[in-house]
Each structure stands twice: as structure tokens, then as C-alpha cells.
Amino acid sequence: MRSQMTEHYFTAKPGAEHRPFEFQANLRGKTYRFQSDAGVFSKGEVDFGTRLLIDCLELRPGQVVLDLGCGYGPIGMVAADLVGPAGQVYMVDVNERAVELARRNLAANGIKNAQVLVSHGLAALQGLSFDWVLSNPPIRAGKKVVYPLLAEAYQALKPAGCLLVVIRTKQGAKSLQAYLEGLAGSCDTVDMKGGFRVLRCCKHPRT
User: Fold this and answer.
1) Under DSSP, is residue 166 helix (H, G, I), strand (E, B) or coil?
2) Contact 172, 139 (CB under 8 A)
3) What is the domain-level CATH number for residue 91?
4) Domain containing 73: what range?
5) Can you give the C-alpha Rg of the chain in angstroms?
């Protein structure tokens, strides 16, 4: 039997037995209903890092957003409400169980301007570009997985678009910030709380 401790969530087919359940969470002043299950990240509640990222969102109506590594969907769902009917949110995850849950959660919360796809990084979204890419990345999968995913996401930003990432300070926040600075020329810490940092790097607008 595979140990739960050795399995991270960046896997297409989680080995954990299904244990479905539901919970509610208040995010940005709205109560959302979530279906969750074993084998997905933070299955029992919206984790602190995700909440911190959500609190930092500065989305505007009509924008196009990518939730990279969406899990069961909290970041993408709040983003969809913030960009409104004129906006569009794409949500991707390599974890097929998480994607199915996110689809159910969009439907259960009446969110129609978002879609969820099984995808390793942006493989299923070729040709699209984004005003924002949002991510609570799968750090346990390692830098060799996470850094290329974020580099690919940065390249898919529109001019002046921004990448917003949350990471636990002790799990490599400073090295990730240095890596993103190398990509974008600059990378800011927009919030730091509870052992987490939210990093933002933006693409230079065309001149």
C-alpha cells in the first residue's frame, strides 16, 4: 500500500481511496460550497496560503485569468466572480480527480464564465494569453517541475499581465523570487503573513 505521506498532488490519478465530502468557505465576502475528496490538495478546507492569495487579487471586470494548478477550484471561482460575465477564467490541473471536483464546484456555485481542463501546465491552452496567472504551485513536486510551469505561465501573459504566486516562506520563497526576477526583471512581495509570501511579477507593456 502506497504511503499517503509520499504522494504529492501533482499526479494525474491519485492513489488515495475516494472519501468525498462537502464544506463551505467564506472568500472575499461570499460563501462558496465545495465538494472535495481524498487525493487533492488541502482537501478539508481552503488553506491559509490560498486564502492569502485570494485576498491579494486585484482583478478587473472583463479580464482573462488562468488558475494554474486549480485543485478543486477556490482561486479560479473567486477570480470568475471578480472578472464578471465579460471576463473569462481558465482553470487547469494535472490531477484528474481535482479537475472533476472543480467542474462540480463551478456548477454548484452557478459560475458560468470559467472552464476547467486536465492539463500539464498550459499544454491544453496553446495560443491563449492572460491578464493574470494565479497559482498556489505544487512545491512538493520540486523545482524541476514547478519552475518550468511558472516560466511557461509567465510567457503566456499579455503585455502588462502579471503572475501572482503564493509560497510558504520556508519552502523556497526567496529562491523562487530570485528565479521570477530573472524572468521578469523584477518580482515584488505583495503580502507576507502566516509563514507565506505572495509574489507578483509583471510583463513589461509594449512600447
Assistant:
1) strand
2) yes
3) 3.40.50.150
4) 4-202
5) 16
- Dihedrals phi, psi of 136, to nearest 5 degrees: -105, 90
The model's pLDDT over 92-133, given as tens digits with 9 standing for 90+, comes to 999 999 999 999 999 999 999 999 999 999 999 999 999 999
Q: Say if residues 98 and 120 touch (Cβ distance below 8 Å).
A: no
- 93 forms beta bridges with 118
Query: Running DSSP on this structure, what letter comes out for residue 124?
Result: G
The cell for 185 is 526583471
* pTM for the predicted model, two decimal places: 0.91
Which phi-psi region, left, alpha or beta, contains residue 28 (left: φ > 0; alpha: ψ -120 to 50)?
left
| Number of domains within the chain | 1
CA distance 132 to 130: 5
Q: Is residue 96 a part of any domain in this protein?
A: yes
**8 A C-beta contact, residue 168 and residue 48:** no
- Strand 88-93 and strand 64-68: the pairing is parallel
What digits encode the pLDDT tens for the residues 195-206?
A: 999 999 999 886
